[in-house]
Write a structure and sequence with these properties.
The chain is built from nine helices and eight strands. It is globular and about 50 Å long. It binds cytidine-5'-monophosphate (C5P).
């Protein structure tokens, strides 16, 4: 039987992580947070001061690196990553690392390395993969594909709320600018840009709650069982 893969792509702050995590829990699938892998790669390069525009140096630096995803203990926790066996925790979740991840992820060789790691995990089956290119490039043959979208102002507001809940101070205007800049960078890159797969269901999350989106996705998945 074909391995069961569900992909969820979309821009930053659209609710992908929360929804993917909940969906995986409901179905008994493994959640594959591909963004966490790009963030860990960015951290690894930043730690060693490697210039992203030097593709040769980037490939050399990443070829010996191990990146493992740790299943979150709690449904509300971000994915943690073991980078060369060490937990990175919140270091990959800063606004600075978000932008760095976006820059690093535009390097074709980086995508090549991480896409291969993601497919390896996908081979086990029963995966909810989340990111920017999981439906278009990583798992083009996925059983179900979803593309979540929402107004950028709504997305920035949600992110701000999330950060305030964690006790961080945020400026919503700056956050909106950074979100728009990151989406543009992700959409305009030459390799595996942020894009809806032709066969993906589009769900606008602007006016829907997390649970409403989750139910809409589950309805599609179940209608096929
Ligand atoms: O989803 P998250 O915000 O954690 O992703 C961080 C960055 O990693 C994105 O802005 C994007 O540049 C990159 N990314 C990617 N392809 C993916 C997942 C993430 O290029 N499949």
């Amino acid at each position: 039987p074909p391995v069961e893969v569900i992909t969820i792509d979309g821009p930053a702050g659209v609710g992908k992580s929360t929804i993917s995590r909940k969906l995986a829990a409901r179905l008994g699938y493994t959640y594959l947070d591909t963004g966490a892998m790009y963030r860990a790669a960015a951290l690894s390069l930043a730690n060693r001061g490697i210039d992203c525009s030097d593709e040769h140096a980037v490939v050399g630096a990443l070829s010996g690196v191990t990146i493992e995803l740790l299943p979150a203990a709690d449904e509300n926790d971000d994915t943690d990553v073991l980078l060369n066996g060490e937990r990175v925790g919140a270091l990959i979740r800063t606004p600075e690392m978000s932008m760095r991840a976006s820059t690093v992820s535009a390097v074709p060789a980086v995508r090549c390395i991480l896409t291969e790691m993601q497919r390896e995990i996908g081979r086990r089956g029963k995966i909810v993969a989340e990111g920017r290119d999981t439906g278009t490039v990583v798992f083009p043959g996925a059983r179900h594909k979803f593309f979540l979208d929402a107004d950028s102002v709504v997305r920035a507001r949600r992110r701000a709320l999330q950060m305030r809940e964690r006790g961080e101070t945020v400026d919503e205007k700056t956050l909106l600018e950074m979100t728009v800049r990151r989406d543009r960078q992700d959409s305009e890159r030459a390799v595996a840009p942020l894009k809806k797969a032709d066969d993906a269901w589009v769900i606008d999350t602007s006016t829907r709650s997390i649970d409403q989106v989750l139910e809409a996705i589950l309805a599609v998945v179940r209608s096929d069982e």
